[in-house]
Amino acid sequence: MENLSFLSADNAFRIRDQFTTPCYVYDEATLRANAAKVLAFPNAYGLSARYAMKACPNGNILRLFASLGLKIDASSGYEVERAIRMGVKPENISLSTQELPTNFKEYVEQGISVNICSLSQLERYGQEIPGGSVGLRFNPGLGSGGTQRTNVGGPASSFGIWHEHTDVAKELVAKYDLKVFRIHSHIGSGSDPEVWVRVIGLNFDILRQFPSVTTINLGGGYKVGRMPGEKTTDLQLIGTPMKKAFEDFAADTGRKIHLEVEPGTYLVANACILLSSVQDLTDTGESGYAFIKLDTGMTDNTRPSMYGAQHPMKIIPKDNEERPVKDYIVVGHCCESGDIFTPAPGDPEGLQPRTLVESKIGDLFVMGGAGAYCSSMASKNYNSFPESPEVMVRENGDLVLMRKKQTLDQILANETEIEL
Ligand SMILES: *Cc1c(COP(=O)(O)O)cnc(C)c1O
Question: Is residue 186 part of a domain?
């Protein structure tokens, strides 16, 4: 399985000895290769490529990507501050958020740009920064996320200004003398070139109503194949017809529009493996299931329980022996029936046994595709399990720690003691 291949069995044992399991293992070579592909996105009149840092905000990844020329998409004021602290230049940070921070004016004064995501955000922005420059995020009425929960466009999505409210947005822009320089639409468009061309068309329709706009930001949402047989978006394939659309728009209007893309998943998903250990085995009899219980769970990866997401898995037998295969339900270590790694695809309520090498307690367990929305979206400290360490396999083969395992003292750090 390709997505599991960067971690050799030797390194897996070494990591368990040195850093304990569970442990996220990132691959520097894959991170660099993904960044190079994003930075080569076809464009007619210039490209800004941003990393949507909510996918995996470890400072080492931010610094690596910044050093390669990627800018940052932040999804909260806290992410803005985190990126700045990691050395990202404020002018390279763009904020698109569901919750506009109360101190957003300070960020703008530092050089951060904001994509306004609702009419009330626009009103607030105008009141605090009249005459300022803004991006506007629209919901163009179309979406194509993998599941209802990852779909971020269309009438069931609260992200961005609904396209039918464009006139209201224009009135607010005029009222506060704002300069709209960017139109943003992140709808999770997947890997189909035709969908991307349609999205561009919808963006150009909005652009015609805002003559001051010089940049289109298409967000992220490039589908990545985690499981064998699933396809990863070919950025050249979807980008080439888009480039043509930009050229056609320029021929039609004289406006040479700058392109921004801001993938999260694409950059990191397959650059990480969640390494864990089999800590128990159980079964529910002849007509039931055989279960593998790991020393990880929703405390490190909630995607299967939230979306019915599928991750590639493999067992590394502790004694390197040859064993037959067997069907298993793989579960996490939380006292929570939803803590399951083998849901039915797209259906977190269902079960789909996985065929794996017959397992023994103490085996290593490798789960691929764990770079995006795993470490960052984990249900941290549930059952008081600590945050897991993060390790990077450097290009020269070195194994280096990029986040320590959390201690109980750190879990308790903010609790206060009341007199009882
Ligand atoms: C989450 C997000 C992204 C990245 O989405 P992926 O599916 O991880 O590529 C990009 N832009 C915005 C505004 C986002 O909220």
Answer: yes
Does the beta carbon of 262 sit less than 6 angstroms from any atom of ligand 1?
A: yes
pLDDT at 156: 81
Does ligand 1 come within 6 angstroms of the Cβ of 75?
yes
Among residues 398, 310, 302, which one has the least CA distance to residue 352? 310
Q: pLDDT tens across 177-198, in order? A: 999 999 998 887 777 888 888 8
pLDDT of residue 301: 98
Residues 243 and 106 in one domain: yes
Residue 249 and residue 159 in one domain: yes
Cα–Cα distance, 137 to 117 (Å, whole number): 5
Domain annotation covers residue 219: yes
Does the CB atom of residue 263 touch ligand 1 within 6 A?
yes
- Is ligand 1 within 6 A of the CB of residue 73? yes
Region of residue 226 (phi > 0: left; psi between -120 and 50: alpha; otherwise: beta): alpha
Range of the domain at 223: 28-268
Residues 356, 298, single domain; the answer is yes
Angle between helices 77-85 and 59-68 (to 10 degrees): 70
One-letter identity of residue 28: E
335 tagged catalytic: yes
Q: How far is the CA of 152 from the centre of ligand 1 (A)?
A: 9
pLDDT band at 320 (very low <50, low <70, confident <90, very high): confident
DSSP SS3 for 387: coil
For the record, the structure tokens of 10 come out as 């030797």
Does an H or E element contain 108, and which? Answer: helix 104-110
- What CATH number did the domain enclosing 100 receive? 3.20.20.10
State the catalytic residue, choosing from 56, 117, 334, 335. Answer: 335
Output phi, psi for 198, to 5 deg: -65, -40
pLDDT of residue 149: 54
